[in-house]
Design brief:
Layout: H1 4-25, E1 31-34, H2 41-47, H3 63-68, H4 81-92, E2 96-99, H5 115-118, H6 123-130, H7 168-177
Parallel strand pairs: 1-2
Length: about 190
């Protein structure tokens, strides 16, 4: 278990960073969609931190993780002070914090790819997209069907929780090979 003083320092760090981002985006956005870290095998392996709390394990989807990491910490309602404080900061900046696939936490449900987000593109676009099926990527997801573009192992940001990068070294090499003037990108 993480010492209480260290836990408070982490909470303060995240609140300070989120407050700075929310302040910069104030007036430009009204919704903040977030989620507790998904326990993908490559994510848990890369995190390599017993204090991280993950969203609930789905016995079908996370079979290997459940076997390899039987003590994996999962978020619980009584462990959510940070989420609640982030929601309060968002509200200060006239934003609503929403959570994707975390029904155990008491916040509005996110829908990252939604009709609401498409309304600026007009009624016709909304009607056409509304006719498409929903295609959730995980339990509790309410997103519309989407198609990822690009390829894995190309982002060099280095986020430890990322599911699209297996190797930071490969991502850097792929980034170096990228040619924005290539014919296939036109």
């Amino acid at each position: 278990m993480m010492p209480k003083i260290l836990c408070q320092r982490l909470i303060d760090f995240h609140l300070r960073c989120f407050r700075r981002i929310a302040g910069a985006l104030s007036g430009a956005t009204h919704v903040v969609n977030t989620s507790v870290v998904e326990p993908y095998l490559k994510t848990v392996r890369r995190m390599d931190d017993p204090t991280v709390r993950y969203r609930h394990l789905d016995p079908e989807r996370h079979r290997t993780v459940a076997v390899r990491y039987p003590g994996l910490r999962q978020i619980a309602k009584d462990e959510a002070p940070l989420i609640e404080e982030l929601a309060a900061v968002a509200a200060e900046y006239h934003m609503e914090l929403r959570l994707c696939s975390n029904p155990e936490l008491d916040l509005p449900t996110a829908q990252c790819c939604s009709l609401e987000g498409l309304t600026p593109y007009g009624a016709r676009t909304v009607r056409e997209v509304a006719a498409l099926p929903q295609a959730p990527t995980r339990s509790g997801c309410r997103c519309l069907k989407t198609a990822d573009i690009g390829m894995d192992n190309t982002c060099i940001a280095g986020c430890r929780y990322c599911y699209a990068v297996q190797s930071q070294k490969s991502a850097i090499e792929n980034f170096k090979r990228h040619d924005p003037t290539a014919a296939m990108l036109r």
